[in-house]
Amino acid sequence: MIQSLTATQASSTTAKPGGPTLGKQDFLTLLITQLRNQDPLSPLDQNQFLAQTAQFSSLESLQNISSELSDMKALALGQVFAQGAALLGKTALASGRDVPLGNGPAELSFTLVGSGSVEIDVLDAQNTVLRHLTAGPRDPGAQVVEWDGRDSAGNAMTPGLYHYRVTGQGGAVAVAAQGTLNGMTPTSTGVVYRLGDATVRADDLITIG
Prior knowledge:
This protein is an alpha+beta fold and 209 residues long. It has helices spanning 7-13, 24-36, 46-85; strands at 91-94, 96-101, 106-113, 116-123, 129-138, 141-147, 160-168, 173-175, 177-187, 190-195, 198-201, 205-208.
């Protein structure tokens, strides 16, 4: 009696633990091999065959969807990169910039246009707000606010690179960086620009001249 699948065939078509996942072509090869080696006196049950065929169709559809999503992501990233490249060489104002955090406090600098208070958000690489600070009424000009390196729960943050964004209140405009856009880098969360001596994110840009 012919077995449904020989030991050699099973070992060659079954994914090993930690190995690559079976693709739709592997699944189809496995199904054809099973049909070829079925017992003529006890053929594969029709319902079982239909179930395996449905599994193959589902696998193929999921892989096609995954491929299409990857293509769309690559296309979107290409469009963002092209749009960002068109801004290089232009002057701009930005409401945020990167700031390094060492073992002590970090200085968050900005320029205030007009008098008023300022709201400051300290962000991580995923744009999650770690700390919210408020600077009371201030006169126009260069300003510095000290961040103690802790999040809103009082936990000390790991030394590294962070980001802050300033927002003027009461009619004032807060500018964290200004200059010429002279470089850009695509990242998993969007495009970052080199603005003068600062690193800013796309959503930091206030005006582009």
